[in-house]
Design goal:
The chain has twelve helices and 13 strands. By secondary structure, it is of the alpha/beta class. The chain folds into two domains: 110 residues, Nitrogenase molybdenum iron protein domain (Rossmann fold, 3-Layer(aba) Sandwich); 120 residues, Nitrogenase molybdenum iron protein domain (Rossmann fold). Helix 8 crosses helix 12. The longest helix is centred in the middle third of the chain and has 22 residues. The radius of gyration is 24 Å and the shape is globular. It starts with a helix and ends with a helix. The relative contact order is 0.12. Belongs to the bacterial solute-binding protein 8 family. This is ABC transporter substrate-binding protein.
Length: 312
Amino acid sequence: MRSTPVLLLIPLLLAGCAGPPQPPPDGTRVANCGTEQIIERAPQRVVSLNQHATELLLALGLGDRLVGTAYPDDHEPPEQVAEQYRRVPLLAEKYPSFEQVLAADPDLVVGGYASAFDDTRGAGRQALADSGIPTLLLSESCADGPAGMDTLLADIRLFGEVLDLGAEAERLAAQITGRVRAVEQRIAGREPVDVFVYDSGEPAAMTLGRDGVGNDALRRAGGANVFGDVPGGFPDVSWEQVAAREPAAIVLVDYLGAPVGTKRDHLRGHPLVGRTPAARADRFSTIPLVELTEGIRFPDAVERLAADLHGA
């Protein structure tokens, strides 16, 4: 009987040696494009390094918490964010230096493309983390396979959680989904149109590949990407391959510094592409680059492409 109290004490003493249970760290644990971070509180000073990422953040309602942007790709932002977009300080026409980013005093930096965090410029994610600045990257840039609308919706919800804008994220996700579903219903049962998407290039053609969000937009709009089997977001292909796949329509990608008129003339006069069904029928259309990347213009791309390809 005397030994019972001693035996009862042993587990208590062992528990005491282990110390009290540690509370989980404050903040949001975020796994994003190969990095894990704990973002301690909703960021109040955000820098965004590509236009499509900036537009997404503004559509979420980030407003004056966005203290800098860079690398505009288009002449005009969409109407829903245009007024706010023009008020965001432009840090650089291309990517800003590491020092320019630090001067904006951000507590979060968001990239639209992986190139936003290029280590060769000294502006990689680890360099920013070493300065106490967390980062987020749109997942299209690090996807192991095809990205699409589901990728976009997941990122919207992740950003909403990190920025304490969860309700706004759900509203935006529902709006995007509704617009895309409406197009899919209008073109249901129609035969897909074979499409060659031309970004740029003369020795070879940079086109839309299998893994980019734009490929999913084209599919949902009733198009069949003739290079939808080629890995990558925007891979290079040969002109012989373009001719062999005989596209029925050509979509020209429009962005600053690359006039679509010049691209159209180049393809019309090309000895191989000029003989494709698309060029012979002069079936060209144009789409802004930002609509083919992960962002709030995804439904714009689906609507535009469906109208061009099917009149729907």
